[in-house]
Hints:
The chain is mostly helical. The chain has 20 helices and no strands. The chain has helices at residues 14-31, 33-38, 40-67, 72-104, 119-130, 134-140, 148-152, 155-171, 177-198, 201-216, 223-249, 254-260, 262-271, 278-287, 292-305, 308-324, 331-344, 354-365, 378-406, 412-420.
Amino acid sequence: MRASATRKPWYRVLYIQVLIAVLIGILVGYFFPENGKSLKPLGDGFIKLIKMMIAPIIFCTVVHGIASMGDLKKLGRIGGKTILYFEVVSTLALLIGVAVVNTLKPGAGFNIDPTTLDPKISQAYAQKAHALSAVDFILNIIPATLFDAFVSGDLLQVLLVAIFVAFAISFMGERGQPLLHGIEYASQVFFGVMHIVVKVAPIGAFGAMAFTVGSYGLGALNHLLALMAGFYLTAALFVIVVLGLIAWRSGFSIFRFLNHIKDELLLVLGTSSSETALPGMILKLRQLGCSRSTVGLVIPTGYSFNLDGTNIYMAMAAVFLAQATNTPLDLGHQISLLLIAMITSKGASGVTGAGFVILAATLAAVPSVPIESLALLVGIDRFMSECRAITNEIGNGLATVVISRWENEISKESLNANLKHPLHLSDQI
């Protein structure tokens, strides 16, 4: 059990490998941009390998978590607390984003004429945004067939199917126990496959970062650089201050929690996708003592209903575009923007380039801001997506620990002990 006796050499630690790969990718993309662009398949291939395993892992985690709970009242209680927590924190993220962008005013003086922008650049995102209406979003949660959810990769569809299967097994009583054991063994197999796949994370992170820098560069971003800096600063303050206070009230340090999930955060940084770290996050949260049922319910739900980073980005980007195009947005317009963003942000799951697409949906619902202005953000969106994904990941992980504390699944003392010396899960491969 002594970790120090089996400590790996620094060069074999995954997060260090990923960090080195990201730095090399930046250098290759900057000095050899054409070569950097050609490395895109490395990043795409790694993300596809990860996403290949997301649906079965989520399915097994949710089914086993709910079906083994036994007490359906507890399920309803945890579900209610989860949705309430997500709504309060994600709304707070929107408010903070609006407050900061109005204070910094990064778009002021840009003086962009929307008629001079190429409408084709934002047209594709606007077309996707129309598919995010409330009715379409609800209907899209229901898969065409039971197995279609696993083919589409939509986490909400997988979550719906998993909940139905979990309840069906629960209603079977003792006859459902063999099925539950089978799902537990299947979960170990899928985590084992993920353990193999994650070994090549540095290669994927290197290719993704080299392509990004090679395609968009690091130079003269002017007002866009101010928006990026403001967004990164706001996200950092949100994590340290807002999430830090929530963690403190729950009896642990946000910095120790960040250190506990550093491997997953570096993986998100390299791939710009929070989904790539989902399996590892599930294991890390269980190492802290969070129950299977809470982890299985809170984490997948958070990927659609607790996108703190995406909410901050949407609020700041929408007001920035209004400033850049000299579009007046009074308090009433900004309140309307927040209310619309609260709804459109719930449609992020399963949408490629979700943050940008949902921003288009929000702007489409607030016609005072010209949707053509989206073209201004295309070049830097890839750089901002890393921050969005990391903030989302931290928020979802923290929510799981906090709700576990509310449910008295783990004491303050045990949680802090596990943050220092994580539990060794018997089924961790």
